[in-house]
Amino acid sequence: MILIAVSKTFEADAVLPVLRAGQRHFGENRVQEAADKWPSLKAQFPDSVLHLIGGLQTNKVKQAVALFDVIHTIDRPKLARALAKEFTEQNRHLPCYIQVNIGEEDQKGGVALDDLAALIGLCRDELELNLVGLMCIPPAGVDPSPYFALLAKLAKDHHLPQLSMGMSSDFEVAVELGATCVRVGSAIFGQRH
Ligand SMILES: *Cc1c(COP(=O)(O)O)cnc(C)c1O
Q1: Phi and psi dihedrals of 25, rounded to 5?
Q2: What is the pTM of this model?
Q3: Is 174 in the pocket of ligand 1 (CB under 6 A)?
Q4: Do residues 15 and 26 lie in contact, with contact meaning Cβ atoms separated by under 8 Å?
């Protein structure tokens, strides 16, 4: 079980005590914010591991591959292809997750359930990405259990070992349902403004 401390919106000053306490996995959702904050933190803590947990635009792929260590948000073929090209370019073959729009919500990121199998096939077989698992953010305000259970089933069906699911409000449930990595922000850093 990996605990990702989600440090988005918090300055380096707030992240440092958490690094000093021994936490090593961190999550950021924006490439530019991470690029401003993390190079100096990584210089001080070279064994820290930075996870991209927000949507990625193809024009930021080069910067993202240089900066991050794990990508959680592959959601479309164009992005998968751009990442594959850049991994080769930089000789950095980062572990990747596909983000699934598990509640089939219009405004949510992630690949549609109907398109998941094809995207897994593209990433794993054609592009030979280091695809390790699936990631989701369940719909807000309802019991997340069925969504976590569905993500776990999809990962199992496709022989993907890792499950990135669970946030401050629901990580206990996510762990019970098989999460291998939880992404916890406000429960560690406090409320975001
Ligand atoms: C912000 C964020 C989190 C952390 O949310 P909290 O509720 O503060 O724990 C987890 N995952 C993603 C994708 C996020 O954007």
Answers
A1: -95, 125
A2: 0.98
A3: no
A4: yes
| Of the candidates 138, 131, 116, the residue with the CA atom closest to the CA atom of residue 182 | 138
Pairing of strands 49-52, 25-28: parallel
Residue 27, helix vs strand vs coil: strand
Q: Are 120 and 160 in contact (CB under 8 A)?
A: yes
Could you report the per-residue pLDDT of 45-67, keeping only the tens digit for each? 999 999 999 999 999 999 999 99
The label of the residue with tokens 């993390």 reads 38
CA angle 38–186–39, rounded 5-degree value: 0
Let me know: does 24 contact 45? Beta carbons within 8 Å. yes
Which of 54, 47, 84 has its CA nearest to residue 69? 47
Rounded alpha-carbon distances, angstroms, from residue 37 to 6, 18, 42: 13, 14, 9
186 pocket-lining for ligand 1 (C-beta < 6 Å)? yes
Residue 166 Cβ contacting ligand 1 at under 6 Å: no
